[in-house]
Amino acid sequence: MWHLITAPILLPMFTALLIMLPPIHYSPNRRRWVSMVSSAIQLVLVVLLLLQVQQQGQLHYAIGNWQAPFGIILVADTLSVVLVCLTSFLALGAICYGSAGEDEKGSFFHPLFQFQVMGINGAFLTGDLFNLFVFFEVLLIASYALLIHAGGKNKTKAAVHYVVLNLTGSAIFLIALAVLYGTTGTLNIADMAQKVAQLPASDLMLVKSGALMLMIVFALKAAVLPLQFWLPATYASASAPVAALFAVMTKIGVYALLRVYTTIFGSEAGALSGIAADWLLPAGLATIALGAIGVMASQDFRKLVANLVLLSVGTLVSLVALQTQQAAAAALYYTVHSTLVTAALFLIADLIANQRGKAADRLVSGRKVVQPVLLGMMFMVGALSVAGLPPLSGFVGKVMLLQSVTDPDNRLWLWSLVLLSSLVVIVGLSRAGSTLFWRISGSDTVAETAKPLQVFAVCWLLLASPLLVIFAGPLTELSLQAAAQLYDTNTAVQLILGQEVTP
Amino acid sequence: METLFACCVGFLSACGIFLMLRGRTFPVVLGLTMLSYAVNLFIFASGRLTLRGAAVLGTSEQYADPLPQALVLTAIVIGFAMTAFLVILAIRARADLGNDHVDGKLPEADAVKKESR
């Protein structure tokens, strides 16, 4: 059980390699089954890991038994394991959807998908900044290839922008890491947290510039204003299962912001504590506003969902910038909710687009969808949930996040922006829904109906929304616990470095 | 030595950023390559610049920090793979979109269209 923490990284890696080998590679069905079964096993394993973390507190694993701070370590605390669970849950849904036929439109869908899951899980679990960079690159190179899966002009155009931007981001990431290593002499997150607190005054400005450069990189991954321009085009042009998995990618940026600016540059960091908050709060609030405007302005449904992703990122980054335990707990619950629901909406958008003939998912009058009741129900559940209306998970998430804001100034801005953006989302989604389902022109379509596997995948992701409400008690408890563990930086750092724990 | 090194890194990044802001994919690829060279040199310098410093204990009076060397190696490999991918993507974009502009359409094309109206 000690090695369980490596499973979310090793399992997708070996699955990807296995899928590329004969005899599995030669048969589409075998590729699909191996990929799906492996994702299901992964989900079971990460739930086991979560139970283990619940029982024993934070776990860490020294790769090759090279102890921190010299070797690379993996750290599993409640926050990171919950996010790994989220990724596995989402990946299973997306792979099932992809297995219904989307995967055969290009080559190597399943291996790339597994590699991307490996990168995402690794980024959540690592306790070393350079290793974080490496896992970022693993997930990025897989995402580059997945983005152009199935081909097409739009995808190539979006991919060029996406790749160039992310390569620039990687360069800045490396510069920031070199600055931090040059001044603190370590790349281990826990060790750096201790070193930053004892910095000589002459190094403060250097470390500060390194830390702010890291913020730029994470803000680029998370798509925070003014670094968000790549997101709508990229997400709207990716094929449906890929876009669904991409829904969790922005959350890695948010997670990295939360981790780095709480553990390293948090309350213990002396002169450098809270350096990111001044920048992140206005940027997050502006992203909410921009996302809301984008929802209203979108000409097609997938762009609209991409703007919903932007909106959720803005909300999360504002919560991270508040730097309180309650805000971190609310951010965790909201991350789980928003990721699953926006991913489901990407899949629904694809189902609708497939059945509307030439109009596809553009918000113009078109042919009638073949299964209006099924798709309409799915759309309604997803829309209610993402807009934050009771009785679904968006409502609980929004209540939690509104309650977590205690400072009157922040309350004024965050409450008004979040509530106004919810109103805009309701208006935008009702407009989109009524256009897609009710404004009918032309003859009936002869498009094929949604395949059972596709329906299962969408229901799997949508089901999370009522489940998040039914089990809201234990889940808020869990996120509060994760936030408490995150903010108890001293204990975490001392545990990792093998020092005696002082309260 | 430090001044020369710093000038080198600065010049490479300046050239890289200038090229990255160009409109066609080939200069952008070159710019990214130059930027990644600058970054690699910069990581190398984070272990301090020493002459005749071995990275193995007990072989010289001054030691070089081996970690940045390992980091540079990783960064070079990753950067190389990414550049290779970007080159292929740029060629594909040239084939799919019919031109090598990063936005997929030439700014002049719009102007010509407007004039013809």
TrEMBL record, chain A:
Entry protein name: Multicomponent K+:H+ antiporter subunit D
Q: Where in the cell is the protein located?
A: Cell membrane; Membrane
Q: How does this chain sit within the bilayer?
A: Multi-pass membrane protein
Ranges for domain NADH:quinone oxidoreductase/Mrp antiporter transmembrane: 127-420
- Cellular compartments per GO CC: plasma membrane
Task: Say which family it is in.
Answer: Belongs to the CPA3 antiporters (TC 2.A.63) subunit D family.
This entry's Gene Ontology molecular function terms read:
NADH dehydrogenase (ubiquinone) activity
Which organism's genome codes for this protein?
A: Rheinheimera nanhaiensis E407-8
On whether Transmembrane helix is a keyword of this UniProt record, the answer is yes
Q: Does the keyword Transcription apply?
A: no
TrEMBL record, chain B:
Q: How does it sit in the membrane?
A: Multi-pass membrane protein
Pfam families noted in UniProt: Oxidored_q2
Stored InterPro entries: CPA3_antiporter_subunitC, NUOK/Mnh_C1-like
Q: Where is the signal peptide?
A: none
Which cellular compartments is it found in?
A: Cell membrane
The primary location reported for this protein is membrane
- UniProt entry keywords in alphabetical sequence: Cell membrane, Membrane, Transmembrane, Transmembrane helix
User: Any transmembrane segments, and where?
Assistant: 26-49, 70-91
One CC-aspect GO term: plasma membrane
Q: Which NCBIfam families does this chain map to?
A: PRK09094.1
What family is this? Belongs to the CPA3 antiporters (TC 2.A.63) subunit C family.
Protein name, UniProt field: Multicomponent K+:H+ antiporter subunit C
Q: Which organism is it from?
A: Rheinheimera nanhaiensis E407-8
